[in-house]
Amino acid sequence: MSDTETSRDDRIFLVVVDESPEMRAALRFACGRARRTGGRVGLLRVFEPADFQHWAAVGNLMREESRADAERLLMELAGQVYEQHGEIPIFFVKEGEQRDALLELIEEEPNIRILVLAAAVGTKGPGPLISFLAKRTIGRLRIPLTIVPGSLTDEQIDALT
Predict the structure, then answer these.
(1) Residue 138, in any domain of the structure
(2) Contacts of 149 (CB under 8 A, 6+ apart)
(3) Which residues of 70-84 are buried (b: 16+ CB within 10 A; e: fewer)?
(4) pLDDT tens digit string along 34-47?
């Protein structure tokens, strides 16, 4: 297979993992699409850098704890992905600002083919990451962005995928 060809199994549907209630909709949608098209689900968890510069050892410990928390959360979600998709997801853990880490990962990982996010429910708008991508970077993304309404039920999402 040449560098420009990718098998269907290499196509990654990327979901950004956070604590928002609508993330569940993005995850379910990505699982359904990946299952039906032969792709994989990728989970990105970004943690904030340790802001403790006075003592390097304390800063390193805080960083290690944040990374362990991120990995724990991804492991919990892996069970849901396996139940819905039948495969273990691909994990991506990055430190930094969420939007910067996301854009960096998309550029680094050629098998990421679709970014799946869910819009927040309510009057405050779709969410900070969607707003940022739509206003500043959508034209520069090398992959499609799928926005799932966060208010959809599991049955509605399953009907769409």
Answers:
(1) yes
(2) 25, 118, 119, 121
(3) beebbeebbeebeeb
(4) 999 999 999 999 99
pLDDT tens digit string along 56-102?
Answer: 666 677 778 878 888 888 999 999 999 999 999 999 999 999 999 99
Closest CA to 23 of 158, 159, 127, 144: 127
Return d(Cα 7, Cα 1) in angstroms, integer: 8
Between CA 84 and CA 32 the distance in angstroms is: 7
Count other Cβ atoms within 10 Å, centred on residue 156: 14
Q: What is residue 48's predicted lDDT score, i.e. its pLDDT?
A: 84
The domain that holds 61 is classified in CATH as 3.40.50.620
Residue 23 sits in which domain range? 8-160
Residue 2 lies in a domain: no
Q: How far apart are CA 145 and CA 141, in angstroms?
A: 8
Q: How confident is the model at residue 108 (pLDDT cuts 50, 70, 90)?
A: very high
**Residue 93 zone, left/alpha/beta (φ > 0; ψ -120 to 50; rest):** beta
**Within its chain, how far is the Cα of 9 from the centroid?**
18
Integer angstrom CA distances of residue 71 from 55, 74, 77, 110, 148: 25, 5, 10, 23, 25
